[in-house]
Amino acid sequence: MCSPQESGMNAMSTRMVTRSRTRGPGARPRAGGEDSAPLGKGEAAAEGRKRHSPVKRQQKPQRLHVAYEASDGEKGEGSEPFKVPTWEPQDWQQQLVNIRTMRSKKDAPVDQLGAEHCYDASAPPKVRRYQVLLSLMLSSQTKDQVTAGAMQRLRARGLTVDSILQTDDSTLGKLIYPVGFWRNKVKYIKQTSAILQQRYGGDIPASVPELVALPGVGPKMAHLAMAVAWGTVSGIAVDTHVHRITNRLRWTKKPTKSPEETRVALEEWLPRELWSEINGLLVGFGQQTCLPVHPRCQACLNQSLCPAARGL
Ligand code: SF4
């Protein structure tokens, strides 16, 4: 099972320059062959001893300069420097604790039918990764139950890049119907599968820029694919639930107009070790409590802390 392993990185910490370096479990794997499928275990590279020249007696005590830098694991994708947040929302930590409590039963549709539950765990790693990507492509504008049904029908025929390319459009359409925008998805799935076969040996790429370059693959899908298929935390996966709820809770400094704008705003301040948790947590919360229309504020533990509760 290619379940995601989340990074245990502590985004808020700093460390001294002279130290051993640890590669966390969320460290980015190498793209390509099947050996790269399992998440890399944390590895530590021992730092060699430094040779010391004889100590010279100093006449005057010298001021000691201690330099700090963000650890490798604390840096964003592409080794961006770690940013110290200058703003964070009021009460967000208590709101998060309350949402975790409300989600403790893990009984929302996303918990049983999300992308990490739709692939064949016994298939070879690159087939599993392809199935993860495909389930994400099917899931946009579609209920989890409908996506899961379509994946079941596709898997019953053996779901691989080759099998999809050998399936005619009409048959593929019937198999995935009634997922949202199924006609477009037939086209995108065919185009993406052809690219995966030609450029990636039937595997999926292991970077967000390469994933979003595939037809029908958006940023949310790319970040979820990185997390579920590659075990890498590349960013916060923001869909309509995450977008709506974080705006209601004022988790963005100012109201945002699109999920992508929300992702950028959240990544400005939310500690990186929470990035992989947020999607599943808030999607389920949005399916059960913080509904798009008529949210169940009376049953919500955040009612007294939620700026939107009064206006809904
Ligand atoms: S109080 Fe209402 S709007 Fe606010 S988080 Fe809870 S359900 Fe959503």
UniProtKB/TrEMBL annotation:
Keyword Kinase on this protein?
no
User: Where can this protein be found?
Assistant: Nucleus; Mitochondrion
Known role: Bifunctional DNA N-glycosylase with associated apurinic/apyrimidinic (AP) lyase function that catalyzes the first step in base excision repair (BER), the primary repair pathway for the repair of oxidative DNA damage. The DNA N-glycosylase activity releases the damaged DNA base from DNA by cleaving the N-glycosidic bond, leaving an AP site. The AP lyase activity cleaves the phosphodiester bond 3' to the AP site by a beta-elimination. Primarily recognizes and repairs oxidative base damage of pyrimidines.
- What cofactor does this protein call for? [4Fe-4S] cluster
| One GO term of the biological process aspect | nucleotide-excision repair
Main site of residence? nucleus
The protein in question is named: Endonuclease III-like protein 1
Q: What are the record keywords, sorted?
A: 4Fe-4S, DNA damage, DNA repair, Glycosidase, Hydrolase, Iron, Iron-sulfur, Lyase, Metal-binding, Mitochondrion, Nucleus, Transit peptide
Q: Where is the composition biased (Polar residues)?
A: 1-11
List the record's Gene Ontology CC terms alphabetically. mitochondrion; nucleus
Which family is it part of?
Answer: Belongs to the Nth/MutY family.
Q: Pfam families given for it? A: HHH, HhH-GPD
Q: Which HAMAP family match?
A: Endonuclease_III_Nth
* Assembly and oligomerization: Interacts with YBX1. Interacts with ERCC5/XPG; the interaction stimulates NTHL1 activity and NTHL1 binding to its DNA substrate.
Show the ranges annotated as biased composition (Basic residues).
49-63
Q: Which reaction does it catalyse?
A: 2'-deoxyribonucleotide-(2'-deoxyribose 5'-phosphate)-2'-deoxyribonucleotide-DNA = a 3'-end 2'-deoxyribonucleotide-(2,3-dehydro-2,3-deoxyribose 5'-phosphate)-DNA + a 5'-end 5'-phospho-2'-deoxyribonucleoside-DNA + H(+)
Per its UniProt record, what InterPro entries does this chain match? DNA_glycosylase, Endonuclease-III-like_CS2, Endonuclease3_FeS-loop_motif, HhH-GPD_domain, HhH_base_excis_C, HhH_motif, NTH1
Q: What is its EC number?
A: 3.2.2.-, 4.2.99.18
Q: Name one GO molecular function term.
A: oxidized pyrimidine nucleobase lesion DNA N-glycosylase activity
